[in-house]
Automatic annotation (TrEMBL):
CDD domains: HPPK (cd00483). The lineage of its organism: Bacteria, Pseudomonadati, Pseudomonadota, Gammaproteobacteria, Lysobacterales. The gene is folK. Belongs to the HPPK family. This is 2-amino-4-hydroxy-6-hydroxymethyldihydropteridine pyrophosphokinase. Coiled coil: none annotated. Keywords: ATP-binding, Folate biosynthesis, Kinase, Nucleotide-binding, Transferase.
Length: 161
């Protein structure tokens, strides 16, 4: 059985666009994962800690036969392979970040994973690329992606490609 998962990609240090492409290519090589859609690439202001460079963000949809935790493990492995070191600092600068935003219609809240990602409705850097690839997806407990995007200020964000 296959599930559609939505993944957010971003970073703000170094060649982020190149790393985003490398991350998508690496995910395509994971057994049981097939990329089915890619968003445009956006430049977005930092969120959380504002004294850092702008971020480059995108989103992909994948069809996967992996369970949510195995997919999370694959995302973390790809991050590590691209030089990401998780030092515990939240919302700070990073070379690459891969977030499992949604996993079909699953609702998961455990010590490793919160799906759908609880802060999606607050984040233009997530909603803009998600609306490119999944505008009609209804996120459990949150609503339809296109409606969430329409409700958030995204004026400081810019389409790059």
């Amino acid at each position: 059985m296959s599930v559609i998962a939505l993944i957010g990609l971003g970073g703000n240090l170094g060649d982020v666009r190149g790393r985003l492409r490398d991350a998508i290519d690496a995910l395509e090589r994971v057994p049981g994962v097939h990329v089915t859609a890619r968003s445009r690439i956006y430049r977005t202001p930092p969120w959380g800690h504002l004294d850092q460079p702008d971020f480059i963000n995108a989103a992909i949809a994948v069809s996967t036969s992996l369970d949510a935790h195995a997919l999370l493990d694959a995302l973390l492995a790809v991050e590590r392979s691209l030089g990401r070191v998780r030092d515990g600092a939240r919302w700070g600068p990073r070379t690459i970040d891969l977030d499992l935003l949604a996993f079909g219609d699953a609702v998961i809240h455990d010590d490793r994973l919160d799906v759908p990602h609880p802060r999606i409705p607050e984040r233009a850097f997530v909603l803009l690329p998600l609306a490119d690839i999944a505008p009609d997806v209804v996120l459990p407990g949150m609503g339809r992606v296109a409606d969430l995007r329409a409700a958030i200020d995204h004026g400081a964000c810019q389409v790059l490609e």
